[in-house]
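User: Structure please.
Assistant: Input sequence and predicted structure:
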Amino acid sequence: QVQVVESGGGLVQPGGSLNLSCVASGDIGEDNRMGWYRRTPGSRRDMVAEVLKGGFIRYADSVKGRFTISRNVRKNAIHLQMTNLNPGDTADYYCKVWIETSPGRVEAFWGQGTQVTVSS
């Protein structure tokens, strides 16, 4: 059984920083694609930052230069360091991990989400 657990988040003032962490567990191997998505009320979940298999990283344009994603391959963990936050970053943040559950079959698993609120 795959579990995806996020931590971090909370309330921060504009210009502040927050860190999010995510750990995936279960019989899932290593070097899995993992990423952070976020959703505001009434919208879909949009990619914020991802680490692809092999370590390639990509960011949404809106967070480039402000957010940094890192990972621990052996622990299937990723971290998102968020700096210079603004009210537009307010959202529920979700961790997503892609697992090859059988040869040639890749499934996506989501965490329960963690709330980030940027407000003075």
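The radius of gyration is 14 Å.
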